[in-house]
Amino acid sequence: MKLNSLVEKLAAFEPSGAPFISLYLNSEANQNGRDEYAVWLKNAFRDEAENYEEESEEAQAFAETTERINNFLESEADEMANGIAVFASVGGDNAIFETIQLDAAFPENQLFVLDRPHIFPLVRLIEQNPKYCVLWADTNKADIYIFGGENTINLETDTEAKVESIKNEVTQRSKAGGWSQQRFQRRIENFHLQHAKETVEEVEKLMREAKIEHLVLCGDEAGVIPLLHEQFSKISEEKVVSTLNLSQYASEDEIRERAAEVMSLENAVRDQQKAERMFTAAKSAAGLGTMGVEKTLEALSNGQVEELLLSADFGVFQYSPKKVKKVLKNYAPGDDNSSADELPQVKDSGQIADELLVRALNSAAKIVFIEDAELLKEAGGVGAVLRYNMNATANG
Length: 396
Description:
alpha+beta
């Protein structure tokens, strides 16, 4: 199942009172090439099992579910996966057992047993690994890669990072002089220009079809790169994140690593810009922004939010459980962009983080995770840019 489809399915889950397991594993190999989560998971399952009365139906259901998870991890998990997530209902009528294996790693091993799926780590991983295009080119060859995003971090798909290789025949240099040499040079330049045009056409087509918003250029900065810049449309040129000086001998791993470094820097800059935009909107006379869990939750319930900003660690959220509970009760199920009749535990910041995400997903709001907690500290870890101000509309 594709990541976005899985998130939608989990967000729509209706609690039945039965436990629900959300398991996130960092399955990166250690220096000996082995996973390190097995001992941690055994202890985590054992500790959770102690919460059930021995030989009860609940204990039996939990044991059967954890055995199924262990069987999957032992016999079906891909050894190349760096991140594994398992979502499983324990008993109840709404049976779910979903697994996802990823090239991107979860920061840590986490086990959540609640009455509903815990989707925050999964949505965070998706948002923090945007799909981006990398073009390596010289004057007669070009390789196009797609990294990140749902289609390439998911090991269950058949998509390869390298999606296109373009080669153009180039006339070999030979000894010539006078006018002949000048005509020869013009011919070479025409070949290079045509190659640049064809390469740019392929890249722009791919980015349109795959809805990719970021592009990293690699190659000889003094050679083909200037030609490429001349051919890109204004829209595509604005999507260029950085230019890397990489030779034709650079491996795919090196290209991926260098591109990931510049994307990380780009994300940090983006986070700061988006946080500043949110604060400006929230403090403006037009009131097109919110700060804080309570006001943002209310705006999400009204369908006002254009862009939801959350600290990547929900442990830093600051809010009043009493006020959040009041907001939740003020919006009846079915009219509040939530998916479940059962309200979350307001003192559990993880459940409140999920509730914010669910309401954002159900109202088509863009979700942005801010890595640096200091950027949203003034807002208690949560804020939003609004599509409209309800009070302004009413007064108008």
